[in-house]
Design goal:
By secondary structure, the protein is an alpha/beta fold. It has four helices and five strands; from the N terminus they run H-E-E-H-E-H-E-H-E. It has a five-stranded mixed beta sheet with strand order 2-1-3-4-5. Strand 4, helix 4 and strand 5 form a beta-alpha-beta unit. Helix 3 packs parallel to helix 4. The longest helix has 13 residues. The radius of gyration is 17 Å and the shape is globular.
């Protein structure tokens, strides 16, 4: 018997962890997760977009439009920043971060400062925004590589049913 051939790649695995982490987000409109991986392919941290620790998800707004202080934007911590802050002492030099959505300029600064050197993403749907244009400009100058995940997978299914294990 030879080994199984239909296993997922490292990139698919780590992006899967980022996508699974996104499922923890309480944001009703955009759920994003992040997975940071060492050069040895070890997961060193994960995060998702949500309120800072100690702030109830029920105490602040989740709206996308309206008076700025009545929207989620000044309060929500993005997945990338959460993953960087959730790291418990592992150096992030030369690490990769997997995110479904291309990072904004604020997260980009944290990515660069932390030592992460590669960003793997699925969607660049905000590529025409100043925020993402600034991110790419900074990453290019800092030598951070960014690339879209290349995979033939359309989805990955996880079962919690005992009979499937």
């Amino acid at each position: 018997m030879s080994k199984r051939k239909d296993y997922i790649s490292w990139d698919e695995y780590f992006m899967g962890i980022a996508l699974l982490s996104a499922e923890r987000s309480k944001d009703p409109s955009t759920q994003v997760g992040a997975c940071i991986v060492s050069p040895q392919n070890r997961i060193v941290s994960v995060g998702y977009n949500g309120m800072p620790v100690g702030i109830s998800d029920d105490d602040f707004p989740w709206a996308r439009e309206g008076d700025p202080l009545d929207t989620k934007y000044p309060y929500v911590c993005h997945a990338e920043l959460n993953a960087i802050l959730n790291n418990v002492g592992t150096r992030l030099d030369e690490a990769k971060i997997y995110v479904p959505l291309f990072p904004c300029n604020e997260c980009c600064k944290a990515i660069i400062q932390s030592g992460i050197r590669e960003v793997v993403f699925i969607s660049d749907k905000y590529k025409e925004t100043d925020s993402v244009k600034a991110s790419k400009r900074m990453m290019d100058r800092a030598g951070v590589v960014y690339r879209r995940l290349q995979t033939p997978l359309k989805s990955l299914s996880i079962s919690y049913r005992e009979e499937d294990i």
